[in-house]
Design a protein that fits this description.
The complex is a heterodimer of chains A (about 475) and B (about 475). Chain A is mainly α. Chain A has helices at about 5-25, 30-45, 55-60, 65-95, 110-120, 125-145, 150-180, 185-195, 200-220, 225-235, 235-260, 270-290, 295-320, 330-355, 370, 375-385, 395-410, 410-435, 450-470, 475, 480-485. Chain A has a domain at about 335-485. Chain B has helices at about 5-20, 25-45, 75-90, 100-115, 120-140, 145-180, 190-200, 205-220, 230-235, 240-250, 250-265, 270-295, 300-320, 325-355, 370-385, 390-400, 410-440, 455-470, 475-480; strands at about 55-60, 65-70.
């Protein structure tokens, strides 16, 4: 069995659930949710045993290298967690949906997941575009899912308008690139760009537009304005999905596109690299500095998610080190793998607080250590890791990014990243301190279901273990790209 | 499995056990006592050897090469002994306090042990950060001041130490990039040192990098002018945290300079502008902070400021860079750690019983608490540098070792030594004044204290005895070091 059957299976399962929902409206959401989770889990289990052979006609636009396999697994894991989070938040979410039902909340993530898995294998711009749209269109629906909440609708409209605009820019960029290089295929584009005869202004214009379009998707400055509003308005499970899944999808495409744009001898290599450095530094700063002044934790996490995108862009700007055997795509994959547990844990905590009738403001965290010490501890681990505390998973990824920047001598970008990280320490630890030192109101103790405790505890354990023992991710870090293999 | 791994893991596991509900006092005392025995046994085994011993390396990442590597030489063992001694005393003297006091003490001590006994730059840095966090939290949660004020103090310390750690991280990243030979980044200190021997940096660059590390490590040690967090933090911190941070954790910055900066950048401290800057800064520590200390009017302020001041002597040894001075620096690191922990521990007891530490309100305590007075006298005299107590050995070696190469004209270094000697006089002034004011003279009505029970005297007796033994027989420690630098 080859891997692409899994993607097809996930997509079919999504469609099937959609049909069941439509024609058998009295089916319980638990059944739907558990079926979706079972399907995803099965795919995740099967993934390592799948062969990487595929029919010849797919070779041209579909690849199954280590990186693709990693991102496929990544998409499955985050989808599984999001489905579970949706079930967990269901009692609260249904208050804001039509007829108090969750309906497509279980089928759409599956379809999104199939899109993300497909995108991980994309070898040309058409595949990228189609799979990206599959993901984005599903997200339009998911973001606005809480129909009766004005915030959710506002978020949905904002995301739709800006998303559509960015898609337009993306297509425009693809057209220019095709015009300049005569190909949609990344490898062919890379070769064409290495040819001095290719028109540099046209290629540069196209590549810049493409980066703008993708910049929207990964929330890179100056296209990051939608993030806080959309993250705040969207239902918490969807926010987690956007923050981890959508971002990872954007970065896998960026990794592939930059392989072409920054290939050996590329005529636009230095310009694109400068663009990445500037955008990355700006993103890190514009994410981190406003986060210091947020009062809502959900918005704070949104801004922090922007700054994480900044570090990832900076990692991409570093490419292969001149002296050391480290590839930027490996670092990005490593960073995202560590980013997943800590972000999901953070949003899970928020969702659990919401389910207990608490708000999402920093002041709602007051006295959390007394009301539920376990949840307070988990949130502390998540925030400490997001801040990049040593011995948590978040530290190593940042360290590699910083080392890469220093190795290339990008001192300006490095200073911006360090300032952003320092600000990150401030706002995360400010929130942690509120949990422990500020006396809360007399709200009763929080209750958490056993399943939540197990999942959240496991996520926290993963964060701590990866912080001390990241060896399981060694393969990811060494994600061998053709460029490295050739070297 | 290396014995060092057990030594590092024990306090951390004990902290975890206490967190999960094990009997706090028994678990903490048991773990720290076993640790002390293990360190002493390791020291006996190490005697006569040189280089790293008890090494063990567990690969964690292949590329970049990252290992959980432990190993100890004489200097690390001396600091491990300091940590276990102070940790045992700190845990022991806790009375009627929530479990978090035990957990925090064990975490700080365990983090410090990790930083001293691992040989991988990544873990050295990470363990130190691990130890810092409980320090901040304990000051903010249980500090001895109004909530608003202790939070402000905790924030100040966090910002200074956080910024210092970031500068340090930048410096260490530079070190790792500069000295990783071959095609793999490596964090292994031995490998970095070997590469530094093979391909030393140009002298000017060594100076720049050394200065960066000096600022980073220095702000952790309260090097002037990055010192202003220290005095309020120690004065506010709960007693075991003050003992552990001023006694042990602060020595991490010095240890880092001695283990990382000086061996990798052998000429860094001797570059003229770096040395002059260092001399100015350490004179700030000794003279400026000495004068500040003289003007303190509360015991905790005096102790906190004196602890900042005494760091100046150790930096003097680094500026001179001779073997004798550096050995003296290690000796003084140990002696200062023990004596300041003793003093902070006693100071905490006084605050509990008396409710005030103002000199103007206290007097004549010796008549009711003779044993307490004797113990305090040990700390006082050690701090002044009285012969027979171990601080004297360290200070003497530093001054003698630093005043070398005199050929008729006095260099900046010589002038600094001459000026720094006045610090000894200032120490005598403020410590003796504090001692006389608190324990002798007339009794103030309403403020008197009695001796603690014998079992509560034991931790302080242990520290005082350590000062006496290592003061009379400094060779016990000095023989462990063939050379101060690896």
């Amino acid at each position: 069995m080859s891997v692409f059957t899994l993607e097809a299976g996930i997509a079919l399962l999504g469609l099937a659930l959609l049909m069941v929902e439509a024609f058998k409206p009295d089916i319980s959401r638990r059944t739907l949710g558990l079926t979706a989770m079972a399907g995803t889990a099965l795919a995740l289990v099967l993934l390592p045993f799948c062969g990487t052979t595929q029919p010849g006609f797919m070779e041209a636009w579909h690849q199954l290298d280590t990186l693709a396999m990693f991102y496929k697994g990544f998409a499955l894991v985050i989808t599984l967690l999001v489905l579970w989070l949706t079930l967990e938040c269901a009692p609260y979410l249904t208050r804001f949906t039509l007829d108090g039902r969750l309906a497509e909340m279980f089928s759409l993530p599956l379809i999104t997941c199939a899109g993300m898995m497909w995108m991980a294998s994309a070898r040309d711009l058409v595949t990228v575009f189609v799979s990206l749209e599959l993901v984005t269109v599903s997200f339009y629906v998911l973001v606005a899912f809480a129909r009766k909440s004005a915030f959710s609708l506002e978020a949905g409209v904002k995301y739709l308008i800006l998303g559509a605009l960015s898609t337009g820019i993306l297509v425009y960029g693809i057209a220019w690139i095709y015009g300049a290089t005569g190909s949609m295929n990344f490898a062919a584009i890379g070769e064409a760009l290495a040819d001095p005869a290719t028109s540099k202004p046209a290629a540069l214009f196209g590549a810049a537009l493409l980066l703008c379009g993708l910049g929207f998707k990964v929330a890179a400055a100056p296209f990051h304005m939608w993030v806080p509003d959309v993250y705040q308005g969207a239902p918490t499970p969807v926010t987690a999905f956007l923050s981890v899944g959508s971002k990872a999808a954007g970065f896998v495409v960026l990794t592939r596109a930059l392989d072409a744009f920054l290939a050996e001898g590329s005529i636009i290599g230095s310009e694109i690299q400068a663009l990445l450095l500037v955008a990355g530094s700006l993103t890190a700063l514009l994410g981190s500095l406003p986060a210091m002044f947020q009062t809502s934790v959900k918005r704070l996490l949104a801004y922090s998610s922007i700054s994480h995108a900044g570090y990832l862009l900076l990692a991409l700007a570093c490419r292969e080190s001149a002296r050391f055997d480290i590839s930027s795509s490996g670092i990005v994959a490593f960073y995202l793998a560590t980013y997943l547990p800590m972000t999901v844990l953070g949003f899970l905590g928020l969702g659990l607080m919401r389910a207990n009738g608490l708000g999402e403001d920093i002041k709602d965290f007051a006295g959390l250590s007394k009301r539920n010490p376990f949840l307070a501890l988990l949130m502390t681990i998540s925030f400490a890791s997001l801040a990049g505390l040593p011995l948590t998973a978040g530290f190593l990824g940042k360290l590699f990014v910083f080392l890469g920047l220093a190795d290339h001598g990008y001192w300006g970008a490095l200073s911006c990243a360090v300032i952003a990280a320092a600000a990150g320490f401030y706002y995360y630890f400010k929130t942690i301190l509120v949990m422990y030192t500020v006396e809360g109101s007399d709200t009763p103790a929080l209750t958490i279901s056993m399943a939540s405790k197990v999942v959240a505890g496991a996520l926290a354990a993963i964060i701590l273990v990866l912080g001390v023992y990241p060896k399981p991710l060694q393969k990811v870090l060494a994600a061998d790209k053709p460029a490295i293999a050739a070297k | 499995m290396s014995v060092l791994e057990i030594i590092i893991a024990l306090p951390l596991l004990a902290a975890l056990a206490v967190g999960l509900g094990a009997p706090a006092r028994a678990a903490s005392l048991g773990a720290t006592f076993i640790n002390l025995v293990l360190v002493l046994v390791s020291m006996v085994q190490y005697a006569g050897k040189s280089g790293l011993a008890f090494t063990q390396s567990r690969p964690i990442l292949e590329n970049p090469s990252l290992n959980f590597a432990v190993g100890a030489d004489g200097v690390s063992l001396i600091l491990a002994l300091l940590t276990t001694l102070v940790m045992l005393a700190a845990v022991w003297q806790i009375e009627d306090r929530p479990n978090i006091f035990y957990i925090a003490s064990l975490l700080i001590g365990g983090g410090a042990l990790g930083a001293f006994l691992t040989t991988d730059v990544f873990f050295i840095y990470a363990f130190h950060e691990l130890a810092l966090i409980p320090t901040f939290l304990m000051i903010a949660l249980h500090g001895r001041a109004e909530p608003a004020q202790r939070k402000a103090v905790a924030w100040k310390a966090t910002i200074y130490l956080g910024a210092g750690s970031l500068v340090l991280l930048a410096g260490l990243a530079w070190v790792v990039l500069e000295f990783s030979g071959g095609s793999k980044l490596t964090f292994d200190l031995e490998a970095l040192r070997n590469q530094a021997k093979l391909t030393p940096l140009p002298v000017e660059k060594q100076g720049q990098l050394f200065f960066l590390l000096l600022v980073g490590f220095g702000s952790l040690v309260s090097l002037f002018p990055f010192h202003s967090w220290a005095a309020p933090a120690y004065a506010t911190a709960p007693t075991p945290v003050a003992m552990l941070h001023s006694g042990v954790l602060k020595k991490f910055g010095l240890y880092g300079l001695l283990r990382i900066a000086m061996p990798l950048l052998p000429q860094g401290a001797q570059v003229e502008w770096v040395q002059n800057a260092l001399l100015l800064m350490l004179l700030g520590n000794i003279l400026v902070m000495g004068l500040v200390t003289i003007h303190a009017h509360r015991l905790d302020d005096t102790l906190a400021n004196s602890s900042v001041m005494h760091m100046g002597y150790i930096f003097l040894a680094f500026a001179a860079g001779t073997d004798i001075a550096l050995k003296g620096a290690v000796m003084l690191m140990f002696a200062h750690g023990v004596s300041i922990a003793l003093l902070f521990g006693l100071c905490g007891r006084m605050r509990n019983q008396l409710g005030t530490l103002e000199y103007s309100k206290l007097g004549g305590l010796a008549s009711h608490a003779p044993a307490f007075t004797v113990l305090f006298a040990f700390g006082t005299f050690a701090s002044i540098g009285l012969p027979g107590l171990s601080n004297f050995a360290g200070e003497l070696m530093i001054f003698a070792g630093s005043f070398t190469g005199f050929k008729g004209t006095l260099t900046n270094l010589h002038w600094t030594v001459i000026l720094a000697l006045w610090g000894v006089v200032m120490s005598a002034v403020y410590m003796l004044r504090a001692y006389r004011g608190i324990f002798h003279g007339g009794t103030n009505a309403g403020f008197y204290m009695i001796d603690p029970a014998f079992s509560q005297r034991l931790p302080f007796i242990m520290l005082a005895a350590t000062l006496l033994v290592t003061g009379c027989c400094p060779w016990l420690l000095l023989n462990l070091m063939k050379t101060a630098l690896p």
